[in-house]
Amino acid sequence: MGLVRTVCLFITFLSYIVISVHGQATARPGPGSGTRVGFYSTTCPTAETIVRNAVTAGFNSNPRIAPGILRMHFHDCFVLGCDGSILISGANTEQTAGPNVNLRGFDVIDNAKTQLEAACPGVVSCADILALAARDSVVLTRGISWQVPTGRRDGRVSLASNANNLPGARDSVAVQQQKFEDVRLSTRELVVLVGGHTIGQAGCGAFRNRLYNSTAGPADPTIDPTFLAQLQTQCPQNGGNTVRVDLDTGSGTTFDTSYYNNLSRGRGVLQSDQVLWSDPATRPIVQQLMSPRSTFNAEFARAMVKMSNIGVLTGANGEIRRLCSAIN
Predict the structure, then answer these.
(1) DSSP per-residue letters across 230-256
(2) For the chain, is the Cβ count within 10 Å smaller at the N or the C terminus?
(3) Could you read off the pLDDT of 120-137 as tens digits, one per residue?
(4) What number of H helices and E strands is found in the chain?
(5) pTM (2 decimals)?
(6) Integer Cα distance of 261 and 290 in angstroms
(7) What is the pLDDT of residue 34?
(8) pLDDT number for residue 213
(9) Which of 22, 73, 75, 197 is catalytic?
């Protein structure tokens, strides 16, 4: 009996461990995580190709869908886990929450789903489509590729009120750390994943407070003066509400490490970005990621795999939506 009990306890322990595609063991991000690479290899072998082609077509039409889809995946995973709930449309859904109203790329996900339903009806989840599309968006902007574990199922709940705790543009490092810790992501993974801003954009309203009404004076003193003048031209104090600014100035369409270099020069656009350089808890990480020997790409891939397993629904939980924009 003692041996049986020991074996059972060992198996239970293993159930809380997930091995990433890079071979590193990490704590399972949430209950129900049971994804694996190649989940659709027999049930829908062309799934990843169909998604990749749909994302490529969307990107060729509008390259700005790449950061939109990447951000969409982040925001999906930080609210009730990576269950595709952000894709559900309608009144008071996550799509209507402030941080999500300007997201782009929903049509790309819908297009991929339409093709997948024609090829493999009722098999591939919207949550998996989004996880794959996020990877493909990074690749299309000359970033790294990685193997995406699949097998997620779709959630049935999408409420704008659940999106209130998403990481925000004015968050301090301490606030960001807590939000990432809440989903079992470390401070280093925070800095690595925020590096996705290398292809991101923000509207003037997200950072205008730094340009004119800083608590430390007329403008945030951590902003490089030349860059401040540039931002004030792009985003006047009264107006410019439709203007969108690259978060990685000078390299906003390429997935690279210049985002971190910009932080070191006082050229972070968002307050939440620039504090990664000014805070001693995160500055050494930024310095490592911007160095000539940077391991940013490999670390980003590992962190994305871990993030994409937050609170996933598998097995008999959730559903496989016929339309990504509506529950069955």
Answers:
(1) HHHHHS-SS--TT-EEESSTT-TTS-S
(2) N
(3) 999 999 999 999 999 999
(4) 13, 4
(5) 0.88
(6) 6
(7) 85
(8) 74
(9) 75
